[in-house]
Write a structure and sequence with these properties.
This protein is of the alpha/beta class. It has ten helices and ten strands. The strands form two sheets. It has an eight-stranded mixed beta sheet. Strands 3-4 form a two-stranded parallel ribbon. The chain is globular.
């Protein structure tokens, strides 16, 4: 276990009235964000820009990935007002680019796909010019669930691979590497116009060869956007950090990814899958 955090991972304190405005907007509409629930290091920066990544379907996850800070507990009842409230929040925050994610809901027959679709439809109705990205779970490989999300026509569908194949059994034992790859492949098969995206973490004990093999697998399924960031263990009970990857190494991985054909690459220690996501479309909220 590595204890001392390098200087490049130090987060500067931010004081901005927008942070309170975003927090109050979210609270007033009974919404959740992955920014708060996953203890994202970019929380204050994003809120200061009046942007957030909304997390639907409650804040209790039915899976217990060893890297994640989201609560693993009995799932909550689905809030039927959530799609409209998400749309209201996006309108109030004047978001030109909105990212919606969720906990994994293995307890629901469709994994929550219909709720995703309703949320996308509500945003389209209220904020027709807003670009929509959804970061979805694997729906246990249910092709009908994926089709439901695709048919609602978000602009980007993201699904995080998180790590290399060799570490899945240790880091996310309830997931499956090839099931996730197939999901990314099927996005493009169902609608070639929707951009496909994934995110991975480094510092879990992966090798460079394993990372490049993952890049290759992603390009074979025509995944277009990729984010690469440093894994930071939320607590001592979570999967341990094996290595701090230097900014120079991240830059090298980003360059390699671009040469392999990814249309958009963000690679740096504090990059997260939804961090500055609008940059892929040249939008700056």
């Amino acid at each position: 276990m590595i204890n001392k955090k390098p200087e490049w991972l130090r987060i500067r304190s931010i004081s901005d009235p927008n942070i309170t405005f975003v927090e109050e907007t979210i609270k007033s509409l009974n919404l959740n964000t992955v920014c708060v629930e996953a203890n994202c290091p970019n929380y204050a920066e994003c809120f200061s820009k009046k942007t957030a990544t909304f997390m639907i379907l409650g804040k209790n996850c039915t899976r217990n990935c060893l890297f994640c800070n989201v609560t693993n507990d009995l799932p909550l009842l689905v809030n039927q007002d959530e799609p409209e409230n998400i749309a209201l929040a996006i309108k109030k925050l004047d978001l030109h680019y909105a990212v919606i994610t969720s906990v994994t809901r293995d307890d629901l027959p469709d994994g929550g796909a219909e709720h995703f679709a309703k949320t996308i439809q509500a945003i389209r109705s209220s904020c027709p010019k807003t670009v929509i990205e959804v970061l979805i779970p694997d729906f246990n490989g249910n092709s009908g669930s994926l089709k439901s999300v695709v048919d609602s026509q978000p602009d980007v569908i993201s699904h995080n691979m998180e790590t290399v194949s060799e570490l899945y059994s240790k880091v996310r034992p309830q997931a499956d590497y090839h099931r996730s790859l197939d999901l990314l492949k099927n996005i493009k098969a169902l609608n070639a116009k929707i951009r496909s995206k994934t995110g991975i973490m480094l510092g879990l004990g992966e090798t460079k060869e394993q990372v490049l093999a993952l890049f290759d697998d992603l390009r074979k399924v025509n995944c277009e956007f990729i984010t690469i960031g440093q894994y930071l263990a939320p607590t001592k009970k979570h999967y341990p950090i094996h290595e701090y990857i230097t900014p120079q190494q991240f830059e090298e991985y980003g360059t390699i990814a671009k040469t392999m054909g990814f249309a958009f690459t963000a690679s740096a220690p504090l990059v997260r899958s939804s961090y500055n996501a609008s940059e892929a479309f040249g939008i700056h909220d």
